[in-house]
Design a protein that fits this description.
The chain is an all-alpha fold and 198 residues long. The chain folds into 2 domains: 1-58, Orthogonal Bundle (Arc Repressor Mutant, subunit A); 67-198, Tetracycline Repressor, domain 2. 75% of the residues lie in helices and 0% in strands. It has 10 helices and no strands. α5 (70-78) packs parallel to α8 (120-145). The relative contact order is 0.11.
Length: 198
């Protein structure tokens, strides 16, 4: 049997290191507090150097805000039927992608979201992340429709979906993840798809 492609092995190793850093960071934040935990402590717990930490995450805030779901979202969006309108296509994409998140990763998302709600610097960083997500989804929608990436319809659809998701995710975090994230978000996007009619 032939060995896996070396680039695949490198990518998996990088993903494991990235996940370890986030896991150790969240553990330390829970034990010591976000403000009291340093990058050096996270690096030590992850068995890496501080310089390696910064190769994966530019700042301590990024270890909370960043995730690895962009490529999944874009792949799922590309697989949606071409005749689906933008909002239904994005709703189906988000539901499919979020359903694939295993319970242990969903617990991490819950911890990261709760940190973002409690710390102003994290909220500011999260806004930057949301802007990037809207641009990414708008590009995917524009591509599906053969439109320019600056197309107002694509940007508005992406912004509306992300905007509808935010209060749903916040409510989910405030309820300690009482329901699955996919169900909570899909309920909000269902309302959006129906024109916000009950």
């Amino acid at each position: 049997m032939s060995s896996p492609h070396p680039e695949g092995l490198r990518a998996r190793k990088k993903a494991r290191t990235r996940r370890t850093i986030q896991e150790q960071a969240l553990r330390l934040f829970a034990e010591r507090g976000y403000d009291e935990t340093t990058v050096e402590q996270i690096a030590e717990a992850s068995e890496i150097s501080p310089s390696t930490f910064f190769r994966y995450f530019p700042t301590k805030e990024d270890v909370v805000v960043q995730d690895d779901y962009d490529s999944l979202l874009m792949a799922v969006l590309a697989s949606q039927p071409v005749d689906l309108a933008p909002i239904p296509a994005l709703r189906a994409t988000v539901h499919d992608a979020f359903t694939r998140i295993p319970p242990d990763e969903e617990a991490q998302i819950l911890a990261r979201t709760r940190l973002q709600l409690r710390h102003a610097p994290l909220r500011a960083k999260a806004v930057d992340n949301l802007i990037s997500t809207i641009a990414m989804l708008a590009e995917g929608i524009a591509g599906r429709m053969g439109r320019d990436t600056t197309d107002p319809l694509s940007r508005t659809a992406a912004g509306a979906v992300v905007g509808a998701m935010l209060p749903a995710v916040f409510s989910w975090a405030e309820s300690d993840g009482a329901r699955r994230l996919a169900e909570t978000v899909d309920e909000a996007l269902s309302l959006l798809e129906k024109g916000l009619r009950p």
